[in-house]
Amino acid sequence: MNKTIIAATALLLSAGSYAQNTPAGSAERGQKIYMHQMCYNCHGTIGQNGGVTGPKIAPNPFPWVAFAQQVRKPRGEMPPFSEKTLPDQDLADIYAYVASIKSGPAAKDIPLLSGF
User: Fold this and answer.
1) Complete domains list, the chain, with CATH
2) What is the distance between the alpha carbons of residues 10 and 94, in angstroms, rounded to a whole number?
3) Rounded to an integer, what distance in angstroms lies between the CA atom of residue 34 and that of residue 94?
4) What's the CA angle centered on 17, arms 14 and 21, to 5 degrees?
5) CA atoms of 75 and 64, how far apart (whole Å)
6) What is the CB neighbour count within 10 angstroms for residue 96?
7) How confident is the model over 52-93, as pLDDT tens digits?
8) CA distances from 53 to 32, 37, 108 (A)
9) Confidence band (pLDDT; 50, 70, 90) for 21?
């Protein structure tokens, strides 16, 4: 089976259990921790991408399990954040913050850009 199909299927299956498996977190507290841990250096202040290294993580972040896995045992250049460095509740709060970030308006909905 094609790896893309397998990955898409796994993502769809995980999306169905999103609410069940996502721990409760505080978006307000998560924003403070996100800034304190300097996540913005790579991912930008609202998860939009830091422009140099980190990928876009908001809006619409990975499902919780994948997000937590990447933070704890990252692929690529991201440093790992152990539970000692970033307790599970802090990670859940960061996830709540990232998940709370809404998409910006479409270009067609911005009056200044409507003529382009």
Assistant:
1) 25-102 (1.10.760.10)
2) 23
3) 6
4) 105
5) 16
6) 20
7) 688 999 999 999 999 999 999 999 889 999 999 999 999 999
8) 21, 16, 29
9) confident
Relative orientation angle of helices 88-100 and 27-36, to the nearest 10 degrees: 110
Farthest-apart Cα atoms in the chain, separation: 52
Closest CA to 83 of 73, 92, 72: 72
Q: Enumerate residues 6+ apart whose C-beta is below 8 A from 60.
A: 103
Please report, as a single letter, which amino acid is at residue 89: Q
Q: pTM to 2 decimals?
A: 0.76
Give the span between the Cα atoms of 55 and 97, in whole angstroms: 16
Residue 93 in contact with residue 26, Cβ under 8 Å? yes
Q: Which residue, among 36, 82, 30, 74, has the nearest Cα to 54 in the 3D structure?
A: 74
| Chain center to CA of 98 | 5
